[in-house]
Write a structure and sequence with these properties.
Shape: globular
Low-confidence stretches: none
Structural class: mainly beta
Radius of gyration: 13 Å
Number of strands: 11
Strand content: over 45%
Number of helices: 0
């Protein structure tokens, strides 16, 4: 069973930055597309960003230009750099391996003054 674990959430003021990390216990990490999703209170879980085998990236329109997804295949990790954070970015952020439907427990991000 794949273990997926997120870290790096917290409380930040509007306009601030946070960097989320996700570690996955995949034997061959580099071949899998990795994704970040988020779920705000009372809302459905939504895609934030994905990064593919060749470092191809995809972003939700709401985070384009502010968030950057990256991966380190040598360390089995994927990161989400979040800049210019807004209150509407407040949510639990989840890391996902879509091909295996493996999810982490999530990490809370709160953007508030």
């Amino acid at each position: 069973q794949v273990q997926v674990e997120e870290s790096g959430g917290g409380l930040v003021q509007p306009g601030g930055s946070l960097r989320l990390s996700c570690a996955a216990s995949l034997r061959i990490f580099g071949i899998y597309t990795m994704g970040w999703y988020r779920q705000a209170p009372g809302k459905q879980r939504e895609l934030v960003a994905t990064i593919g085998q060749g470092d191809t990236t995809n972003y939700a329109d709401s985070v384009k230009g502010r968030f950057t997804i990256s991966r380190d295949n040598g360390k089995n990790t994927v990161h989400l750099q979040m800049n210019s954070l807004k209150p509407e970015d407040t949510a639990v952020y989840y890391c996902n391996v879509p091909a295996l439907n493996s999810w982490g427990q999530g990490t809370q991000v709160t953007v508030s003054s």
